[in-house]
Amino acid sequence: MNIPFSPPYIDKDVLDEVMDTLQSGWITTGPKVKALEKLSADISGVQHALCVNSWTSGAMLVLKWLGVKEGDEVIVPAYTYAATALAVIHSGAKPVMVDVLDDFTIDPKKIKAAITANTKAVITVDIAGWPCDYDVIKNVLFGDDVKEVFTPANDVQQQLGRPLLIADAAHSFGAIYKSRQSSLAADVTVFSLHAVKNITTAEGGVIALNLQQPFDNGVVYNWMRLNAMNGQTADAFTKTQKGNWRYDIVSDGLKVNLTDVCAAIGLAQMRKYKSKLLPDRRRIFEHYNRFFADKNWAILPPAISDERESSYHLYLLRINDITEAQRDKIIQLVAEVGAATNVHFVPMPMLTLFKNMGYDIKDYPIAFNNYHNEISLPIYSQLTDEQCTFIEEQIEKAYRAVVK
Ligand SMILES: Cc1ncc(COP(=O)(O)O)c(C=O)c1O
């Protein structure tokens, strides 16, 4: 067998859409990006969604809108991909890492304990597609005690009156929280359209705006659109209209716009997300669940409850009573017979950059506990039942060989 971990979904519709773009005479930000924004907004239940060229740049743009700068703090979970904290560092602020719960999501009690007068935002992460418990987190952020310590430094922060809740939904496009799209839970939700994500544009991201009164999401969308393209008043597409050459630069914007060529890939995929791609993912997740459910050595990942449903991005299997070295050996044995598995994630305090900044994994015992015995199994539409069975059997075989 040769089972890759996360090949992109490229069918004839994707090829046709990309070819259509290439032949249209317009390849950078234009009508395909607009169409992808409309579809992303429709699926995620918001009025305004802005496409950018990665999750990371999207988060940077949101922090720029909030006016986050040096001396500010943004709370993030220790258990996530490094980009969650890097976006904060790029804004000049300090990422303040807190520990997670057993289900991989950020611990709301730890958020509360980490809030100071410098806290400007909290970035929560829906790991593997499993949404955080947003109402509990909002109870913390909307509490009078938090509002009292919040120290606004500009008009946006003044209007907000509390730290901004940003969802790192890199994995969770299409996830459900309390019977609604999970993107209706946080103030701003940022999806990733990176090559391995549920929907991909090779590299890309979507900012879904869900700000409440007194904010006008249309106005915020326009600000972000402008500041995703050098702060330029007329984008290149508008300037192609005859006679429309004049423009101004009105702010020190980033240059993080998505291109139409990339948007075309995601557009064709997104059109069949709810009818095919997401149900396919669920089928694979359930296949794994059926196999591992009666294995007393396996800890199944969270996926569905009365209040939440995952977007089935990855299957985060954990194995009882094994060491980090034994986990690594299992991954190696399974790789040798042709199946790629993975680990999501090495907690950030274990990475050199963050260690050098003073973070220590000893302060994040649950993050380490979730990581040391975790093996991510692949989920994607093209994966057949036969391949799933192969992966399951090889994991069990490797487990028995390693543990004896
Ligand atoms: C949890 C999480 N957040 C953020 C990112 C960054 O996404 P992007 O590569 O689109 O910037 C990733 C990418 O893997 C991720 O897994």
Description:
- The structure is a single chain.
- The protein is of the alpha/beta class and 404 residues long.
- It has 2 domains: 12-270, Type I PLP-dependent aspartate aminotransferase-like (Major domain) (Aspartate Aminotransferase, domain 2); 274-403, Aspartate Aminotransferase, domain 1.
- 41% of the residues lie in helices and 14% in strands.
- The chain contains 16 helices and 13 strands.
- The strands form 3 sheets. A 7-stranded mixed β-sheet has the order 1-9-8-5-4-2-3, with helices on both faces. A 3-stranded antiparallel β-sheet has the order 7-6-11, with no helix packed on it.
- It is globular.
- The mean pLDDT is 97.
- Pyridoxal-5'-phosphate binds next to α3 and α4.
- The site of pyridoxal-5'-phosphate has 14 residues, from α3 and α4.
SSE layout:
Blueprint: H1 12-24, H2 31-44, E1 48-52, H3 55-66, E2 73-77, H4 83-90, E3 94-98, H5 108-114, E4 119-125, H6 134-141, H7 144-149, H8 155-160, E5 164-169, E6 176-177, E7 180-181, E8 188-192, E9 205-209, H9 217-227, H10 236-240, H11 260-270, H12 273-292, E10 298-299, E11 308-309, E12 315-319, H13 324-336, H14 352-356, H15 365-372, E13 374-377, H16 385-403
Parallel strand pairs: 2-3, 2-4, 4-5, 5-8
Antiparallel strand pairs: 1-9, 6-7, 6-11, 8-9, 10-12, 12-13
The structure holds pyridoxal-5'-phosphate (PLP).
